[in-house]
Amino acid sequence: MKNDLDVLMQSHNIDALLIVGSGKHNPAMSYFTGGAPLGQAYIIVVNGRTPILFHRDMERDEAAKTGLDTRRIENYHIDKIFKEVHGDMRLALAELLKRMFVDLGLTSGRVVVSGKDDIGTSLSVFSAFKEIMPDIELIGEIDQSILNAARATKDAHEIERIRKMGQITTDVVGLTADFLSSHTAVDGKLIKHGGVPLTIGEVKDKINLWLAERGAENPEGTIFASGRDATVPHSTGNREQLLHLGETIIFDLFPCEAGGGYFFDLTRTWCLGYAPQEVQAVYEDVKAVYQQVMEELKLGAPFKDYQLRTCELFEGLGHPTILKDQDTQEGYVHGLGHGVGLEVHEKPWSRVMGNDCLDAGSVITIEPGLYYPDRGLGVRLEDTVWIRADGVVELLADYPHDLVLPVRTN
Amino acid sequence: MKNDLDVLMQSHNIDALLIVGSGKHNPAMSYFTGGAPLGQAYIIVVNGRTPILFHRDMERDEAAKTGLDTRRIENYHIDKIFKEVHGDMRLALAELLKRMFVDLGLTSGRVVVSGKDDIGTSLSVFSAFKEIMPDIELIGEIDQSILNAARATKDAHEIERIRKMGQITTDVVGLTADFLSSHTAVDGKLIKHGGVPLTIGEVKDKINLWLAERGAENPEGTIFASGRDATVPHSTGNREQLLHLGETIIFDLFPCEAGGGYFFDLTRTWCLGYAPQEVQAVYEDVKAVYQQVMEELKLGAPFKDYQLRTCELFEGLGHPTILKDQDTQEGYVHGLGHGVGLEVHEKPWSRVMGNDCLDAGSVITIEPGLYYPDRGLGVRLEDTVWIRADGVVELLADYPHDLVLPVRTN
C-alpha cells in the first residue's frame, strides 16, 4: 500500500523515486495523481516528503486537483535551456531534470525511475543526465520494485474503485447475455430482426458502448471468442464471425476507469441454446477446480502453491497441464491468476518461479481453464477477489457461472 | 515513411531496431503491426530484412494477422531460463533477449531501442543485457530518431486511416453541435426535458458514446471547456458545469482508432445562442490568422517559420505572444501545431528551436488561439492538413468554423 512506500524506500536504500511519462494510461503516475488527465509530467518522491508533481502550465487546473505539491515545468525556462544547449533536445531534457532535482536539494543518492514512456527517449535523456549529475544513480527496478511492491496490496480507497469497476463489468456482462438471448436462432445461427445474422463485431461494439456509458473503457481490448478462437486463450475473436447454437464463447472482459485507472477482470464461458456433452464435461471440470481452489485460498500463502494445486487437480481429472509439459497447447496451458489494479496484470503473480504471496490487500484473479484446439473446445472461468486482512477472501463482483445462455429457436 | 527506414538506418549507421512493450497504445509497435491487440511482444528490424515479431503463443492468431514474420517467445523456453538464473527476472529477460538476437545472427552492432514500456524494467533488463552481449550497443534516440523521422511523413495507407478518423471526428463534432442546439435555454442556461440543466459531463458522455459507436476512442481525453476553463489551453473542462448562453466553449477532439492507432485532431470554439462582442472580435482575429497561415503553408518550408509568422500576425493585431514573453498566459501562448499520426502529438513540431519541415507526406495541425484568463475568454481553431507531394495542402476533414451555435430561448 502507498503507506508502505517510505519503509520500502528505506529498506531498499533508495533516496527518491522519479516517475516520468504522461498522466494517462501510466500506472506509476496514476498511483500518485489518482488519474489526472495530464500530458507529459514528472513526479519526484523524496523519502519522507509529499510527492512533487511537475506539470505544464497549461495543465495547472488538472494538476491542482491531484492534491500533490505542484510546480510548473515552465519555471525552469525550457526555452532558455534549449538555447543554451543549441537546440539539443537530449541535453535540454537532462538539464531540465537536473534543475528539478537541484530544486529539491537532491544532488546525490540512489533514485529509482519508473513510468510508462518511450524507452528510447528515456535511455537517451538518462545517459545525458548521468554526465551532468554524476552523484545521482538512476536505477531501474523489475519485479521486486518498490512501486510494484507497494501497489501489490490495495488500501480501502483502491478497493472501492476496483469494486466499482467490478459492478460495471458484471453489468456489461449481464447486458451482453441479455442481448444474445434476445435473438432468435434460425438454421442454428443467431439472427437479427430482418433475418440478417448477428456478428461478433456487433456484439463487441455493443460492449464498448455499454462500457463508455458507464465511464469505463477497455484499452487492453476484450476477448469475445467463439468456436476455434476460444481454444487459444488470448485470441480476441473474429469480428465477422456469426454466432452458432451449441458453440462455446469465451467472454473475458477487463475494462478500466476511463483515461486509465483501476481495472477489473472477469471471464465467463457460454454455450448458446445448449451445451454439447463434451463441453459440459470440460466445463464441469473447470468449475470443480475453480471451486476447490477458491475454497483453499489462504491469507499469506504463496500464490504459486495454488498454480501447482490447480495443475494437480486438473491432472487428477485426466487433463494435460503446463506443469508436465510447458509447451502443451492442450489442457491447462496458462497461469492461475494475477494481481489486478492500475494494470490488468500486475503483482502478485502465480508463476511457479516467483515468490509472491497472497498478502492482506491483494486483489487477484482466479481463472482456471481448459483448452482443446483440435476439438474446437475452450472453457475458462475467472473472478477477481480481495484477500482481506481478516483472512476473508471476498469476491469483488458476483455474476452467475451458468454455461448455457437460453436462445429462442425458430 | 516506412519505405525510408532502410536508408535512415544506413545513414544513422544502425544495424537493427528493437521495439518492446505491448502491442496496444504503443505507437512504435503499432507502426509495424498495424495495431494488432498483442500483449508484451518484441519486434526486431534488421536492416534490409522483413521485421520479426516475437509474440506469446497464446496470441499466435493476432500475431499471424500482422503479416510480419513471427516467432513464438515460448520457443526460447523462458521457464528453463528462469531456472538457470535462479528466478531472477532481470537476468531471465536479458537472456531471452540475447537468444532472440543470436537467432537472427545479431551478435554485434548498433541497435536503436524504442517502444512505450515501463522505463524501470527496460533500464534494468538492458543493463543486464549489456553484460551478456557486450558487442551490442543499445541506443536510445530522441527527437531526430529513425522511427520518428520515418513516421513524420505518411504513406497513402496511413493517410486513408487518418482521413477516416477525420470523418469520425467531424461526425461527432456535428452530433455534439446538434445535441447542444436541440436544448432550450431558460434563464440563460441550457435545459433538458423536465427542466433540469444540462451539464458538461453529460455532453462528454455523449461524445464518448458516439466515438465508441464509430470504432474510435479518446485515450488522451477530450477538451470541452467553457467559461474560465476555456482560457487555459489544456483544461479539459469541469463535468458539473452548466452551459450558459453567450459563454465560450472550446471543443478540442482528438480521438484515435480503438485499441491505439491513428489519431485526428480538430478544435472549434462555440458561443451558445450569441457571441458577446469581445468574443466575436477575438474570434475574428484568430480566424484571420488561421486563414492567412493556411494560405501561406508551403511544401518543404520550416514549420517554425509559421510559428514565427503567427506571432507576428497576432502582434500586428495587438495581442501579446510567447515570442515576446515566454511566460505570458495572455494572448497567443502555445505552438501553432504538430504532426498527427500514431500519436496525437508527434513530428513535425512547430517549435522555434526545432528544425522540422513540412515535408511531403506530413500531416499537421494548424491551431492558432488567443486566451485572456482575466476576461474569461479563450478562442482556438484547429484543423488537420496533409502536405502532399504535389504541393497541395489538403484539409483531411472539413467542418464549418461558425462561432455561434443557435439555441432556442424560452
Give a concise summary.
The structure is a homodimer of 410-residue chains. Chain A is built from eleven helices and 23 strands.
Q: Could you name the CATH class of the largest domain in chain A?
A: Alpha Beta
Biggest chain pair interface: A-B, 78 and 76 residues
Portion in strands of chain A: 15-25%
CATH topology of the largest domain in chain A: the name is Creatine Amidinohydrolase
| Helix segment tally of chain A | 11
At CATH level 2, the architecture of the largest domain in chain A is Alpha-Beta Complex
Give the total of beta strands of chain A: 23
Q: How far apart are the termini of chain A?
A: 55 Å
**Unreliable parts of chain A:** none
Return Rg of chain A in Å: 24 Å
Annotated CATH homologous superfamily of the largest domain in chain A = Creatinase/methionine aminopeptidase superfamily
Number of self-contained structural domains of chain A: 2
What is the percent of helical residues of chain A? 25-40%
* Strand arrangement in the largest pleated sheet of chain A: 4-3-2-1-5-7
Q: What's the shape of chain A?
A: elongated
Mean of residue pLDDT values of chain A: 93
User: Oligomer, anyone?
Assistant: homodimer
The SS-based structural class of chain A is alpha/beta
